[in-house]
Amino acid sequence: MQQQKIKISQAVIWISSIFLGILSSVPQLASHEFNWKEAVVNSAITAAFSIIMWYINIYMLNRSAGKRRQHISYSRLLVILAFGMVIMFGLAWIQQLILSHINFGPVMLMVEVRGILINLVCYMFLTLLQNNYTGQQIQLELEKVKSDNLGAQYELLKQQINPHFLFNSLNTLKLMAETNDEETTDFIIKLSDFYRFTLESRKLDLISVQEEMRIVEAYLFLQKARFGEGITFTNLLEKETEQTLIPPFTLQLLVENCIKHNVVSQSKPLHIRIYNTNDKIIVENPIQRKITLEDSLGVGLDNIKMRYKHLLEQDIIIHSDEKIFQIKLPLIHEYHHH
Q1: How confident is the model over 127-154, as pLDDT tens digits?
Q2: Could you give the C-alpha distances from 216 to 96, 136, 210, 221, 253, in angstroms and in order?
């Protein structure tokens, strides 16, 4: 991103210069020996010098607009002061030609000091303005880099969802086909629905809880084809809660996490409950730890934590008392991206 060049309104330049010109004649106005011709010439010389120095300072600063400076350049300041002294000398000489009766030496010293002060004011004002532009651009670039980085991280998070689920589902389908299971056709339809939900939902940051529950139900149908009555599921979510929002596949990942880390069998069924209370959605299951855990690809809880942090800057709550394992998700009533 190129640094923005300084632009000052013509009205600001001319009005401020005329004001400085008038201000320079105030001492003469207070004098008992007021000479209107001297006052007008003095004001005109000061105003002309101010206008010239405005444009020279703007030109010099814009020449270095491509450089990311946020400090005063003393070399550039000395060059501009030198230009100013030469220009003011020339204007003082013109003043001497118009007002030949004045003493050139003392007047010359006075106008040079005045010129240096005007020059410094112009330079410092424009330098502060340029530094402000530069600071804003740097901040915008940092925010853009941060936003792009977070966006890329979030896309990677969404791509992590269900990387090995298809493999397990196809193995289950193969077994059902070999045993001529009557539910093979339903299994294929649900598997198709599940991946259709996956493709549609991955484009979104948030979906309704009701839509998310359709994904969970399709997923559980596929898992029950594998585990039978080894899994029981209770959905106690209220209608109002189903209209709130949630990152896609959050509940599905939590249900998958329950199955992956606990014993699931006909003799010891795993009961999973989803309900809401105190502005939270709670996913709960009894702890039935496996002796050997299934391979994990690093998704599940970490994925959900990072997505909530990225989208909402909120944390999920994990509670375990060695008997019951709970995940508490904040309800999202509306979404404003940070």
Answers
A1: 787 777 777 777 887 777 666 555 555 5
A2: 92, 46, 10, 9, 9
Q: How far apart are alpha carbons 294 and 286 in whole angstroms? A: 18
* Ordered DSSP codes for 78-96: HHHHHHHHHHHHHHHHHHH
The continuous run of DSSP H or E covering 288 comes out as none
pTM of the model: 0.53
Q: For residue 205, what are its two tokens? A: 């940051």
Name the residue type at position 232: T
Structure tokens at 117: 């002060």
CATH architecture of 161-330: 2-Layer Sandwich (3.30)
Domain ranges in the chain with CATH number 3.30.565: 161-330
Contacts 24+ apart (CB under 8 A), 155-163: 157/303, 157/306, 157/307, 157/310, 158/202, 158/248, 159/202, 160/297, 160/298, 160/299, 160/303, 161/198, 161/202, 161/248, 161/249, 161/253, 161/299, 161/303, 162/198, 162/249, 162/252, 162/256, 163/297, 163/299
3-class state of residue 332 by DSSP: strand
Q: Give kind and range of the element (H or E) at residue 42.
A: helix 36-63
Residues 6+ apart with CB under 8 A from 28: 34, 35, 38, 39, 42
